[in-house]
Specification:
alpha/beta, TIM Barrel, 2 domains, 8-stranded parallel β-sheet, 11 helices, 11% strand
Amino acid sequence: MTSQADKAAAFKALHAQGVFVIPNPWDVGSAILLAREGYCALATTSAGMAWALGRPDGGVGREGALAHARAIAGATELPVSGDLENGFGDAPADCAETVRGAAAAGLVGCSIEDSSGRADAPIYPFEQAVARVQAAVAAARALPFPFTLTARAENFLHGRPDLADTLRRLQAFAAAGADVLYAPGLSTREQIAAVVKAVAPKPVNALVNPALGAITVTELGALGVRRISLGGLLARAAYSAHLRAAREMASTGTFGFAKEVVPFAELNGMFR
């Protein structure tokens, strides 16, 4: 599977074959390691990308995000979808431009959020949010391969745990032509099941969330979820290990963390 069209077709087919995990590398090295573990597709993470650059989530613009996406897409033979935030602009035309840029960067899909990036009004008004998805879908459909457009309703990530409004938005996004629906930040199985039911038969992406407890792939699949992403969780795990090691050295002058690391030869060999 080498062509972008082949990758795009394979990625779209995954959403009709039950549930799958799409992990989120934050740099080329983590993408290569994930590909070695047998995953079928990868997705970028805006948070992980930003942290790797020493910035907070949302601190990288379109040009930087697409350059990062191009690097990840070129690192493996796997299909890659992009976390492209709110499309890097308020207008529907901004979302369309971002989708075209995503395709040019080698991605086979991307997500567009309804979050504005403004603290005083973090979620776009309903009509504007729908128009933005419509423009993104139109740009995706104009591409010469089946680009998978994911529409995200961000209420629960921005202090607005309004399930009714979230369902209304996701249903409108589905009607606008979005291929996959996604409401990050859900904290109960009942909320996830409600999303799946509201947009059926379209596939739903669920975000692994510590608030869900020890939920499994099988359990999410039983709820009707088709795709499971981790957002910045893998990057957080890596940075957590880094911080534990740094704090141990600084506070105790010991190197106990070294007992837990992957042997040099094994890790180095993974990049040959």
